[in-house]
Amino acid sequence: MVSQKVVELCQGTTTVSSELGRDPTLAPGKVLKKLYGDDVGGHDEHKKFVDPKPTAEDLKKAWQSGKWGNSHPSDFFLKVSFYGCSTLIQI
Question: What's the domain range around 20?
Fold first, then answer.
């Protein structure tokens, strides 16, 4: 299952990419630390990770995690997004 923490990270408007776009002279590692502190990796969630089989709730969270505008992607695309987000549990 995609955790609420991953959903919140995906919905965030300030990202490493956006900060580097604003100021390309910044070091990516420093931006990462500034945005997320030491909270990168080492989560207990990765210990619970199993090969995911997305539920309806998982697909809803995958949809919430994206920035789709007024469109609603297909369930297949939401599953792809879900699997991508699920790998974030391991970092």
Answer: 4-88
- In tens, the pLDDT along 37-63 reads 776 555 555 555 555 688 898 888 888
What residue type is assigned to position 6 of the chain? V
Model confidence over 64-87: pLDDT tens digits?
888 888 888 998 888 888 887 776
Q: Which of 44, 46, 25, 26 is nearest to 35 (CA)?
A: 26
User: Residue 85 has what pLDDT?
Assistant: 75
Question: Domain count of the chain?
Answer: 1
Residue 35: burial class (beta carbons within 10 Å; 0-12, 13-18, 19+): middle
State the burial class of residue 23 (Cβ atoms within 10 Å of its Cβ: 0-12, 13-18, 19+): exposed
